[in-house]
Amino acid sequence: MLSRSLIQLYQNPQYHGLYMEERGPQINHLGFADDIIIFTSGRRQSLKLIMHTLATYERVSGQLINKTKSHFFLHSNAFRTTCDRIRKYTGFQQKETPISYLGCPLFFGRPKNIYFSNIINKVVNKITGWQSKMLSYGGKATLVKYVLQSLPIHILSATTPHSTIIMQIQQIMADFFWGWRNDKRK
């Protein structure tokens, strides 16, 4: 229901969404289950239209938007007055990027290795739980193929990290398979 209302908002000539590039498509919103990200130019009229749409959604659905869990994000070069205006019209607090949405980092600019530390930690944490177990090469191969290699699939299909991140994940898996820990064979 909210998604449909936001699509109608997108068709309103007074609403200005976000353009990733000057002649590219206008981005309106991204939603999954009860999470939604709304993209806008930050202009007063657009903010008013968004808040009106959200208020209508609350009234019609009976569901309330939790303003303490709602945030807005701006590029680091955005003017302070823009930040203040968005805070005033929405009642939301500003949050810094990168953020994680459905396990994928959302950020402005070029991807930094630190943005992908979460996926590396997931792989390492899985392996840590298996380190104490006596596993054959066949058992390790099965775990690498069906568990470890499936962990980064979602994030790698949605974003493009540096090749160093991919190589680091592959090295962690290889070290687990061959039994290396801290540059020493177990």
Automatic annotation (TrEMBL):
Domain Reverse transcriptase: 5-105
Phylogenetic lineage: Eukaryota, Viridiplantae, Streptophyta, Embryophyta, Tracheophyta
Name this protein carries in UniProt: Reverse transcriptase domain-containing protein
InterPro entries in UniProt: RT_dom
Pfam families: RVT_1
